[in-house]
Design brief:
heterodimer; A: about 270 residues; alpha/beta; 2 domains; four-stranded antiparallel sheet; about 30% helix; about 25% strand; B: about 425 residues; mainly alpha
Chain lengths: ~270, ~425
């Protein structure tokens, strides 16, 4: 889709994904892709199906039909563990941290380093945690406090570090800037830029255009379970994208890129 | 003062709790004219607290995972009855009377059945999704009823001669020499742990406590161990019993050698062992890390690949095992097993855990806190009994203290919620 990436293989491709709940088609034939070193926003109102789509990729839901292709090979992602085996890490909106544990304990939760005798090697874990977190945020100091004592941005850094530590190549961030202050949002933006340089593919899920517009290279816009279209951010304005989100209409000058959902929707919205 | 404690990395809540305990002890000592802080009373306290303290260690883990176990008193009851029957009715058919293996087999049977009972309740909570409150409320009735059925209500006695040593009776102590050896091992362990921890932190170039804080910590801990052993060794056997012991050993009694120390009671040793093993399990193993992670955020734990259901079963099964150990201590102390043994113990255990700083919201709690909590509860009860306070009034006071403890914890926690502040 993006000519900059022409020739390289997508990191992950979701093809023609269908999933419905009790007769409601939550995701209806959506295809998206993501290339290495690329940040792609998945936008849409609440209920547009973006979170459901992404939960398919992170292994929380199994689609009724459709394929997931990771590195050119079809992958079966039936649970969170399978997603992780495919180097897909999800950072949830509520951050999925255990508030009572400290940063290192959260980073290694479920994948602890143990000594030969089978006891937790907290020293080694803290050592690695300091290394990774220092790379993300040189000011991070509170290694021995529970993460509940951290700021929103610091918590986000812990969640991202967790993904990095296990060599994620595909990072899914659900509402990455929700509940963050201005400065913390900027910090997360810097983090994302840095990960991009490291060659990760990042999917940003958001209902708020402003959170992701400046961070993303491309945008997939969804409405009512269908893909309205995929655009490069450099080709569109905020208003163009808002039109896609609200009306389900592709901007006039990009109509040739419209997804299957665009025409259907524009008829029964208005 | 706060700064000094922070430098020493001492749990502020622990200091508060220890202060409360000290106030209670001094208060009762003054009110009773010096009869509370005596070797004899401290020794008795240690024995009386043991059964509740052992169960409290397990209850910490249950409550940390956001569950509750109301059935521990009843499980204790049914296990005491089963162990009573095993040692007095069943084993003597195969082994000699008071055979040295009897108490071991009995205890093992109790532990296995305890793990099964706890495990079944854990399955109901973890896999069937019935709230722990309901499952164990049911268990409270079921196992108390079962305790009666074991012998149709008959009290089992006398128990095996070796088994009753677990209760800390006349011979159920390890004496002065062994008490000193235990103290020496404990102090060596304290010093070793402090040095090892410091070296490990330095090897990773992590910040360490100032060296004076390390020394102070170690000296306080070692001092407490020494004080405890000195006190317990200062409690001598009654003259009559001492004469018997000397006669057994074939030594003529003289005024000096009649002073035979009790030393550390076996139930206290059991408590120490259980607390150390569980503290290590809680802090230094995956099992413990997952228990706390589940308590902090069950969803996060699940997403991290932790099998929350299986962990729930494991924690409840562990509680069952500890109930078996407590059942052994309680029945051995009474030298008989009656089907009402352990009645209302669930409330004493939960109160001890909560006073010890474990949050009912889950994710937060320490085993040493629960031990001090148990000691606070037992001190109040013994102290009031010593002063001749009516039992009815004792209940009222203990009930009020429980509510006050949780309130003050909430109050101070709100004020100092940031542990680095």
């Amino acid at each position: 889709m993006s000519d900059r990436n022409a020739g390289t293989q997508p990191l992950v491709e979701m093809r023609d994904i269908h999933i419905s709940f009790g007769g409601v088609k939550a995701v209806d034939g959506v295809s998206i892709d993501l290339y290495p070193g690329e940040v792609v926003g998945v936008l849409g109102h609440n209920g547009a199906g973006k979170s459901t789509l992404i939960k398919v990729l992170s292994g929380a839901y199994t689609p009724e039909s459709g394929q997931i292709i990771v590195d050119g090979r079809e992958a079966k992602i039936e649970n969170a563990r399978a997603a992780r085996d495919n180097k897909i890490e999800t950072i949830y909106q509520n951050l999925a941290l255990a508030d009572n544990l400290d940063a290192a304990q959260n980073l290694f939760l479920g994948r602890e380093i143990v000594t030969k005798a089978g006891f937790l090697d907290d020293g080694a874990m803290e050592h690695k945690a300091r290394e990774v977190l220092h790379r993300l945020n040189p000011n991070f100091k509170k290694f021995n406090s529970p993460v509940s004592a951290l700021s929103g941005g610091q918590r986000q850094a812990v969640a991202i570090a967790r993904a990095l530590l296990f060599e994620a190549r595909i990072l899914i961030m659900d509402e990455p800037c929700a509940a963050l202050g201005v400065q913390e949002t900027r910090m997360v933006g810097e983090l994302i830029d840095q990960l991009k340089k490291d060659g990760l593919g990042i999917l940003l899920i958001s209902h708020d255009l402003h959170d992701v517009f400046d961070l993303s290279d491309r945008l997939h816009v969804m409405k009512n379970g269908k893909l309205v279209g995929t655009v490069r951010t450099e080709d569109v304005t905020h208003d163009d994208v808002l039109g896609m989100i609200i009306l389900g209409k592709m901007p006039e000058h990009l109509l040739h890129l419209a997804g299957p959902g665009a025409t259907n929707l524009s008829t029964h919205v208005s | 003062m706060t700064k000094i404690l922070a430098k020493m990395e001492v749990d502020r809540r622990l200091v508060g709790l220890a202060a409360v305990l000290l106030i209670i002890w001094i208060g009762f000592d003054l009110a009773s004219g010096g009869r509370f802080i005596t070797p004899r009373n401290i020794f008795n306290l240690s024995v009386q607290t043991a059964s509740v303290a052992v169960m409290a260690c397990g209850m910490v883990l249950i409550i940390v995972t956001r569950h509750i176990d109301l059935s521990v008193g009843s499980i204790l009851g049914v296990l005491a009855m089963i162990m009573g029957v095993v040692q007095t009715d069943i084993l003597p058919q195969f082994l000699a009377y008071n055979h040295p293996m009897t108490w071991i087999i009995t205890l093992l049977v109790g532990i296995v059945i305890g793990a099964l009972i706890g495990g079944i309740q854990g399955v109901a909570v973890g896999y069937l999704g019935v709230p722990a409150f309901i499952v164990t409320l049911g268990g409270l009735l079921v196992w108390r009823g079962a305790a009666w059925w074991v012998t149709q209500g008959r009290t089992v006695a006398p128990l095996d001669a070796n088994f009753i040593l677990l209760g800390g009776g006349i011979n159920g102590t390890i004496g002065a020499t062994w008490s000193w050896i235990v103290a020496a091992i404990a102090i060596a362990a304290i010093i070793y742990a402090a040095i090892k921890d410091r070296r490990r932190r330095l090897s990773f170039e992590f910040p360490v406590k100032p060296i004076w804080a390390e020394y102070t910590n170690a000296i306080i801990k070692a001092g407490l161990v020494l004080a405890a052993v000195l006190t317990l060794n200062a409690y001598y056997l009654p003259t009559r019993a001492a004469e018997k012991v000397l006669a057994q050993r074939g030594i003529p009694a003289t005024p000096e050698n009649l002073e035979i120390s009790h030393g550390i009671a076996i139930p206290l040793l059991i408590v120490a062992l259980v607390a150390i093993v569980l503290t290590i399990a809680a802090k230094r193993t995956r099992f413990g890390r997952y228990v706390f992670a589940i308590g902090g955020n069950p969803q996060a734990a699940e997403l991290a690949g932790i099998n929350v259901k299986r962990m729930t079963v494991a924690v409840f099964a562990l509680m069952g095992v500890l109930c078996a150990i407590s059942a052994a201590i309680s029945s051995a102390r009474l030298q008989s097993a009656g089907n009402d043994l352990g009645t209302l113990d669930e409330l004493r255990v939960i109160a001890a855990v909560v006073i010890g700083g474990t949050s009912l919201a889950g994710g937060l709690g320490t085993i040493y806190g629960a031990l001090i909590g148990a000691l606070v509860m037992q001190s109040l009860q013994s102290g009031m009994a010593l002063l001749g306070v009516d039992t009815s009034l004792q209940s009222i006071v203990i009930g009020l203290v429980l509510v006050l403890a949780v309130f003050s914890d909430k109050y101070f926690h709100r004020r100092y919620s940031d542990p680095t502040a």
